[in-house]
Design goal:
348 residues, alpha+beta, conserved putative lor/sdh protein from methanococcus maripaludis s2 fold, Elongation Factor Tu (Ef-tu), domain 3, OB fold (Dihydrolipoamide Acetyltransferase, E2P), 4 domains, nine-stranded mixed sheet
Length: 348
């Protein structure tokens, strides 16, 4: 009776033991996927570019004199604001002298007008010769012209006094002081460099061979510190350098992180657009001479698909093989995946 009970107990434990011996399935591997794209693409050529300011000038003095003040490097200057000053003492003395001469001429005019009126009254009674009247009229006219010249001289001196303040023609930052306080400058001497840091653009040099594919308004990829963004081409300068065989392209630089002088890379089209399938470069898996991608099926299992690569498209690359538009391609987390393995799709 005891043996029968033991057998019954062992029999009741068999499913539990069998269940414990079954291998546990690993959890789905987390992966990041992106869909294959089918569209019109052009081959791209990466060229170097530099962020420049649309307004970058070395401002010169417009009058002679000794420098009394220059704005510090880094100073933010508004349009029309002074960035340097020149001693105006001598000019103010010239202005005072010219104004005194003008006052003297005005006094002469009053006397000459009175004298002319007296002679004209005498002539009416035949007590003054016509030559005397002509001479008085001539002197009066000459004095009036001298007053006009004195007024012009005064305006010129006032203008030169206003020019002793070297003002910024556009808003910006003082990037360089080219003179120091106490130096004597002549008209045309460069005083300081001002750079407009708000209005920027990218200047890139491209080979003449791609000129036919580049148009104003098209958006191109710009790479700065390993991050990419799209910016429109503002202008194409259709003049090539006969030595370098390069021409200039200007691209908008609206990203505030791109400060003036920053080096960037620009992807320019280099072929006629054609329809093809492209995937992110991170989706390619290289094993020796073999190239394949890992595709996620509808049941979230994966399979390997052998491909060949075509033209480069910035962050994408053309794939030639059994890859179709909309296929989910693993771009991260696929290093150790095996065909048939189940995956869990993650956002990042």
């Amino acid at each position: 009776m005891k043996r029968i009970n033991t057998l019954i107990l062992l029999a009741s434990m068999l499913p539990v033991v069998a269940l414990a011996q079954q291998p546990q399935q690993p959890p789905p591997a987390p992966v990041v996927v992106e869909k294959a794209q089918k569209d019109l693409f052009s081959a791209t050529l990466w060229v170097s570019g530099t962020v420049i300011s649309k307004n970058d000038a070395r401002i010169a003095a417009e009058t002679d004199g000794r420098i009394t003040w220059v704005a510090d490097v880094g100073s933010v200057i508004a349009e029309g604001e002074a960035m340097a000053r020149i001693d105006a003492t001598d000019l103010r003395l010239d202005l005072a002298d010219s104004e005194a001469q003008l006052a003297s001429l005005k006094a002469q005019v009053k006397y000459q007008e009175s004298n002319l009126n007296r002679l004209q009254k005498l002539a009416a009674n035949s007590n003054a010769a016509a030559t005397q009247i002509d001479e008085a009229q001539s002197q009066l006219d000459m004095t009036r012209q001298s007053i006009n010249r004195a007024n012009v001289a005064i305006q010129q001196i006032k203008r030169r006094i206003s020019q002793t303040e070297v003002v910024a023609p556009f808003p910006g930052v003082v990037a360089e002081r080219l003179v120091q306080i106490g130096e004597f400058v002549n008209r045309g001497t460069q005083v300081a460099r001002v750079v407009d840091t708000e209005h920027r653009e990218i200047r890139a040099q491209a080979p003449l061979s791609v000129a036919g594919w580049i148009k104003s308004g098209m958006e191109v990829s710009v790479e700065y510190q390993r991050s990419e963004s799209l910016s429109p081409i503002k202008s194409v300068i259709p003049v090539g350098d006969e030595r370098s065989r390069m021409f200039e392209v200007r691209i908008a630089a609206d990203n505030p992180a791109w400060i003036v002088g920053s080096p960037v890379r620009v992807a320019l089209p280099s072929s006629e657009p054609r329809e093809l399938v492209a995937i992110p470069r991170d989706g390619l898996v290289l094993r020796g001479s073999n190239i394949f991608v890992i595709r996620v099926n509808d049941d979230n299992t994966v399979e390997r698909v052998s491909v060949q690569t075509g033209i480069g498209l910035g962050g994408f690359v053309e794939v030639i093989g059994e890859v179709n538009q909309g296929d989910r391609i693993v771009t991260r987390g696929g290093e150790r995946l095996q065909p048939g393995q189940t995956v869990a799709i993650s956002d990042s």
